[in-house]
């Protein structure tokens, strides 16, 4: 292992396991493994993810498709608009700048996927954008509803 003493008392230690040619270094030090989380000490069957939908088998990850992706972005925008409580704090907060950015992301996604979405996906995106724009205008006091 290569060690150098820098002026000012710093010690530089090269902890890379491999040389630049990809060979295992002889003087490489094995780093201690991070302590495992407590749930990793349980048997694998008890670590499976909880079902996300009723009737869905345990351990099956939720289905990710275009509609669920768009809905997650819209939900984030609604959190920033203060319409939905923040999952982290449980409080409703307004952050119009962040909400505007999320709306712009959805608009960009609509433009980039134009002609490549199913009719249902296109309608979902269009209706979500309409609702988000109206809420944004209402919150920014641009219009009174």
Task: Describe the 3D structure.
The protein is mainly alpha-helical and 145 residues long. The protein has a domain at 66-139. 37% of the residues lie in helices and 4% in strands. It has 3 helices and 2 strands; from the N terminus they run ββααα. The protein has helices spanning 66-80, 96-112, 119-139; strands at 3-5, 11-13. A two-stranded antiparallel sheet has the order 1-2. Helix 1 packs antiparallel against helix 2 and helix 1 runs parallel beside helix 3 (119-139). The radius of gyration is 25 Å and the shape is elongated. The termini are far apart.
Key features of this structure:
2 strands, 145 residues, elongated, mainly alpha, 37% helix, 3 helices
Q: Residue share in helices?
A: 25-40%
Shape: elongated
Taken in chain order, the helices and strands follow as EEHHH
| Straight-line distance between termini | 69 Å
The spatial strand order of the largest sheet comes to 1-2
Overall pLDDT? 79
| Helix vs. strand class | mainly alpha
**What composes the largest sheet?**
2 strands, antiparallel
Number of strands: 2
Total of DSSP H or I helical runs spanning 4+ residues: 3
Q: DSSP strand (E) fraction?
A: under 5%
Low-confidence stretches: 42-48
Radius of gyration: 25 Å
């Amino acid at each position: 292992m290569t060690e150098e003493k820098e002026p000012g008392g710093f010690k530089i230690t090269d902890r890379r396991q491999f040389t630049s040619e990809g060979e295992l270094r002889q003087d490489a030090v094995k780093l201690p493994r991070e302590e495992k989380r407590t749930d990793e000490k349980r048997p694998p069957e008890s670590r499976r993810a909880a079902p996300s939908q009723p009737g869905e088998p345990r351990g099956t990850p939720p289905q990710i498709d275009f509609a669920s992706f768009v809905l997650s972005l819209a939900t984030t925008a609604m959190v920033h608009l203060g319409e939905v409580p923040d999952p982290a704090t449980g409080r409703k907060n307004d952050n119009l700048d962040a909400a505007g950015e999320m709306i712009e992301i959805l608009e960009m996604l609509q433009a980039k996927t134009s002609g490549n979405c199913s009719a249902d996906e296109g309608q979902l995106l269009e209706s979500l954008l309409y609702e988000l724009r109206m809420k944004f205008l209402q919150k920014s006091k641009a219009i009174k509803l």
